[in-house]
Amino acid sequence: MAVAGTEAGGGPLAGVRVVELAGIGPGPFAAMLLADLGAEVVRVDRPGGAGLAIDPGYDVTNRNKRSVIVDLKSADGVEAVLRLAERADVLIEGYRPGVTERLGVGPDACHARNPKLVYGRMTGWGQDGPLAQRAGHDIGYIAVTGALGMIGEPDEPPTVPANLVGDYAGGSLYLVVGVLAALHHARATGVGQVVDAAIVDGTSHLTAMIHGMLAAGGWQDRRGANLLDGGCPFYGTYETADGRYMAVGALEQRFYDEFMELMGLTAVAPARGDLARWGELRDAVAARFKQRTRDEWAEIFAGSDACAAPVLSLREAPDHPHLAARATFVDHDGITQPAPAPRFSATPTAVRTGPARPGDHTAEVARDWDVPDLMTDHPTKGS
User: Fold this and answer.
1) In sequence order, what are the residues at sequence separation of 6 or more whose Cβ sits closer than 8 angstroms to the Cβ of residue 139?
2) 333 catalytic residue (yes or no)
């Protein structure tokens, strides 16, 4: 596992200034991704503001950022944020629709100060629609898009995929794509705009291929009955002798052939082409996996094209030989965490600083961004 560098700057977004109005979930993750890519991100924390229920020193979604504390309920605080917006390329917020307008830092107020500003809005339901003002969380957003209903065993409740599919894939990543596209447009035209990133929109977009297959009759609208949802005996997970699991994705014929040979199941291999025998095939594979431990199977499949891999825990993953060789995880200030992704040949990225603690950088941001109002609002904060 690599140890992250602490060098300043770097990354393809070096020179891009981002203001993040503090929140939880997909907004901070999107801002972290921009920061990982080299953008200068200033997180505007509220006094006593809510965050993750952990010590903020461990909230890695706030790495590579700086933090100021601003009271948006005060006139000085509003002016401080507007002055930051004047000097920024991007502003990200994750409040319910209309909240930043009521606070005085909505798109119109910010664009009056900086017409080129890209104003990114992150919500679950979107800026309009009958549910726009309703509370929600990842699980509800992915539920109504059909994505949650695809995941899990057919005779059991849908499996909750943590908050990866909604908050981060359907939310954060789409916000970042939208912000970067709008930033490209703003630099070409001098005109900023609002990016409405809704988790329900992004998650629905993720199911595009499945909807095509559904329309073509190649996907059944139920769990555990399809090629990619565990319904196929050579694409799924199997328990091993030690109660752990192996993942199998031997879809193509030549990969399947190698998988079945290494499993010692060539006699039953022809069942692949007969849906009526898939139950027999699944039982044979499951029984064979139960004969060895996960790590023993991983060793058998190592170096092969059988498309079988051990299912690792979060703590195990950084030590996987391939991930270790690529430094996919890094250690920074005693915290093991994923390294920035993707990778760039000319503008490499790095974990430059640890999680920004609320208000730690008020004085230096006030100086570097020439926004003395930050100190007026909170004269005791800063470093």
Assistant:
1) 148, 160, 163, 166
2) no
